[in-house]
């Protein structure tokens, strides 16, 4: 028991360690730029993956696809997608990284176009071939993705550092009317110095070691065939090298092609000969062994990852992505997952990416060695789907069964990492949500609007995604709904009203705070639609409750000042109220004071029109803003709701005095006063002693689902009836 506890503690410590580490990575701008630049190239990768599949049809029946015209069509598609992916990565990286650079006064502001130019130039310094030959090759995904990423990171880092040296700034003033020209001239020496440093580095590399980064890798790995044999350890070593290369974005099997030529091709030929002579094939390891038993869905056995995403993925996005990536993966094309999740350079997936194929190699080797599965004697194109391929290369159903076992084991290895990765993503989103909420609540937002969609970086992206999701939620599903919080009149112990509060249960982020929903709707232009949805929904419910509630029990609905600027608001709102069967005086619209309201003559006029029609108007969160008294003068008010920040009168004498004067003011202007945010009995007693009678707060009830409201109201009436029955006449 004790040892189980100790193991649990160790696992949870390990998990926290991985989470901390990955969080540190997640905040590193170079890491963010790597992931975003790979993700940016995803449309090209998908196109390239499909073209590649058509170029290498899995079954002979699709031989008609091999016509010369169709082949060159596919080649053109591959060239313009995979073929230039390195360039896309360079550009994406430079722009993302530049935009993530913090700017401090006194420093030069980084310019993304300029960084891109320097980075592209440095890339060509490193990879440009001699003469024209192979010019396009250097831009390809297969050959130069790692060089592209490494160059982008190094060159932009160097440029940012050099540009901070005063000695490297040209003494120029403003150039004409365009500040960009001034920027370019200021950064010119640093940009030129960066490119020159890359040239020197390339020369040194050429002189001292070997030409090009990947050539360095290849020359090291070619030494592996020297140890070639047919042992289990060799299969593990080969697979390990191929997977490590993949982790760095390099096409492992292609780089290790010398191993194929020297070892595996000969083994395959010998096996085929033996099969024809009906003798025992001498080798276990051939290229097809790895293609079909350890790379199901492509390197990293990404088919297992797809299954793990479908089984364990909690977010709709990851499941949707898994289904999109499934089609190419069925034909062993894994680029969408490699660059889309991404698996490349992702510390969260490095363990399963490497261990899954190793475990599968171990199982497959032993299954063949123990004669549970026949040795490989036949050839199948690498795009042949799983199960069919297992059968084709071994000539036995046992080959397909071995693939089933490999898939199950691989999926089990991937599942915990899918969970971990989602957990990390969730933590990141929770933090981003917090930032967005703070932005909405900030003083700046009160005055100038939150401008969520214009925010830079991950926050801005989350805001845009949420705005898109909100659009869908408003139009269709049941993610948006209302809760109701009772307002209690303590004098007659009755529910004097109920406030409708908006709720959004986001499918992956959970509850989103209402002010953020409203701010997003406001910025994206569908506040009107959302506002009328809320009013209609609330009025319909209040009308349904008519026989449970007293006729004068009001329905309070929050309205944002922006909604009131709509010239049709009054007419439409009255139409909704009447259509639901309520009378205007049963509805109270709550307006929060913001700077947007008072200067807007149209909004104030709308309030007057509504009031004339009988709708009640309440001023919400009174006492929070700077212009509260001004509001009392300008707006036609029935109710003032004292803000929660003032309810803790016990803590602060000033609060008590403010509340007293609000009460006096309300009485003299015939405006009723309600106190919000009452949580404790002691608060209630103090306010009652100050003369307040209507309250809203957790002490009475938290906001509750619509179905719970009638029974709450009824229980209060019944309690009241019991008390009056037992009271002495
Ligand atoms: P509000 O209109 O002042 O609503 C009262 C808020 O205080 C609600 O938060 C409620 O759950 C919370 N509250 C009530 N009693 C207590 C208490 O005793 N203690 C504490 N700590 N909190 C209490 P909620 O639902 O998160 O709404 C926040 C704000 O979002 C609302 O403040 C309102 O300004 C806005 N909002 C909510 N629904 C809507 C809507 O349908 N339309 C518009 N335009 N704004 C809305
Ligand atoms: Mg309110
Ligand atoms: Mg309030």
TrEMBL record:
Transmembrane segments: 38-56, 76-98, 110-129, 180-198, 204-224, 292-312, 321-341, 347-368, 389-417
Domain PTS EIIC type-3: from-to ranges: 14-417
PROSITE patterns given in the database record: EAL, PTS_EIIC_TYPE_3
InterPro entries: Cyclic-di-GMP_PDE-like, EAL_dom, EAL_sf, PTS_EIIC, PTS_EIIC_3
CDD domains: EAL (cd01948)
KW Acetylation (keyword) present: no
Gene3D superfamilies with a match to the protein in the record: EAL domain (3.20.20.450)
SMART domains linked: EAL (SM00052)
Domain of life: Bacteria
Keyword Membrane: yes
Name the UniProt record assigns to this protein: PTS sugar transporter subunit IIC/EAL domain-containing protein
Subcellular location(s) per record: Cell membrane
Keyword terms, alphabetized: Cell membrane, Membrane, Sugar transport, Transmembrane, Transmembrane helix, Transport
